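R.M. (postdoc): so does anyone remember the format we settled on? I'll just put the structure tokens first.
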């Protein structure tokens, strides 16, 4: 599709004074678009310019418009009487230029594109509608230069989505709505020979560390990429949630408007970066799940260990209770018993907890070595006489009364070595008991 050279350049001086517009309606021919050689309806400029009897109306307000050339030969329409309520008649120059650039970019990318295309229901009117090769409405390019609330632009985006039409909103300056819907901020060329550029809204993802950084490009490239699906609007998924310029750490939208809460929630990026971001988000979620599982595991292990400790303590407490109950000794008597044993044997002794392996008696250790950490088993104190085993033949048995000595002697099947340390009388004795028969 060719574009007339005279209206290719969307530079301010090319348009001339006052509001101008690029589309009009003809009762029989339909929509006229002066940005196309055949006006989009197989007609020529000569058939409408300075031709008597041709009646053209404004697509927006229905008012009468005429074809006209500006001082610089730019084709356009103008309202014979300017209606105060017609948005096309009152469109600003920069809005007009941006629309012209957008339709030019779409056509340069090989797509059919039309200006001011309204929905059949009248619920929206796209500044530029781009069509697919089968004639379906593909994407709306909207020059959004007048103020609009975040809620309103979300609602308008929703209408396009409902109708299966993609949309991108183009602006010049940061506004609260910018980045809440698919957006590109653009800059007009400042000098002849320069091109329109994208200043914000397009980003790429780098890993290590994960970060989004802005991409600068010509507007024509960006429009071509979005129409061909090479870039997509993307809501960040992984932990990298901001677009930050590498050189100065400046974040998009931070402090751009009066509200510091403004954030870009989505931006355009290559579909490969969108996929990479999704993959990173999955990995991060997996790492979080793993860490949580490890923490829960550790908590479970800790609980099991605590339970085991408590169980062992209960067993030990029970063993002591049984020991004190069976021997009839109290703590004071035990201390005295201990002192007598150390005195008599002239050894540094330690008593273990009541131990079922030694008939519920308390193993007696001699403490030795350079720092007293070498314990040698040297006897068993106060074992249950009914539970003597082979160890009784090898280890000396320590008892707290002659009554216990007698009981042991009555049960001896081999010679036993027995010490008596009576805490009540202070008696100390060493006996060798023999089997009774
Ligand atoms: Zn109008």
């Amino acid at each position: 599709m060719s574009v007339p050279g005279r209206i290719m350049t969307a530079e301010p001086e090319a348009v001339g004074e006052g509001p101008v517009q690029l589309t009009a309606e003809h009762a029989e021919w339909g929509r006229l678009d002066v940005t196309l050689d055949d006006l989009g309806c197989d007609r020529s400029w000569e058939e409408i310019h300075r031709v008597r009897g041709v009646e053209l109306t404004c697509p927006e307000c229905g008012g009468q418009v005429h074809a006209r050339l500006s001082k610089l030969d730019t084709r356009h329409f103008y309202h014979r009487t300017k209606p105060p309520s017609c948005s096309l008649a009152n469109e600003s120059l920069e809005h007009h230029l941006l629309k012209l650039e957008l339709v030019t970019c779409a056509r340069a990318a090989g797509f059919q594109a039309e200006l001011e295309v309204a929905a059949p229901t009248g619920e929206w009117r796209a500044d530029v509608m781009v069509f697919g090769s089968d004639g379906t409405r593909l994407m709306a390019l909207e020059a959004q230069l007048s103020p609009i609330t975040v809620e309103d632009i979300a609602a308008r985006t929703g209408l396009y989505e409902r109708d299966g039409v993609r949309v991108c909103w183009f602006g010049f300056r940061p506004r609260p709505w910018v980045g809440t819907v698919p957006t590109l901020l653009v800059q007009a060329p400042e000098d002849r020979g320069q091109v329109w550029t994208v200043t914000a809204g397009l980003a790429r993802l780098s890993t290590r560390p994960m970060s989004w950084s802005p991409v600068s490009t010509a507007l024509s490239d960006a429009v071509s990429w979005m129409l061909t699906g090479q870039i997509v609007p993307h809501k960040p998924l992984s932990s990298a949630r901001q677009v930050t310029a590498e050189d100065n750490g400046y974040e998009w939208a931070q402090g751009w408007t009066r509200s510091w809460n403004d954030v870009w929630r989505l931006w355009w990026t290559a579909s490969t970066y969108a996929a990479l971001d999704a993959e990173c988000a999955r990995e991060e979620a997996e790492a979080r799940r793993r860490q949580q599982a490890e923490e829960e595991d550790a908590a479970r292990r800790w609980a099991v260990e605590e339970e085991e400790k408590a169980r062992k303590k209960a067993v030990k407490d029970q063993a002591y209770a049984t020991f004190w109950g069976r021997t009839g000794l109290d703590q004071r008597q035990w201390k005295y018993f201990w002192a007598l044993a150390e005195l008599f044997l002239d050894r540094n002794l330690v008593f273990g907890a009541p131990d079922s392996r030694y008939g519920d008696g308390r193993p007696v250790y001699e403490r030795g070595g350079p720092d007293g950490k070498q314990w040698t088993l040297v006897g068993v104190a106060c074992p249950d006489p009914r539970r003597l085993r082979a160890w009784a033949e090898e280890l000396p048995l320590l008892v707290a009364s002659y009554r216990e000595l007698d009981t042991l002697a009555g049960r001896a099947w081999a010679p036993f070595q027995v010490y008596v340390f009576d805490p009540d009388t202070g008696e100390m004795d060493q006996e060798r008991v023999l089997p009774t028969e």
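R.M.: ...and that's the designed sequence above, right after the tokens. Also worth knowing: Residues 271-327 form the longest helix (57 residues). The chain has eight helices and 22 strands.
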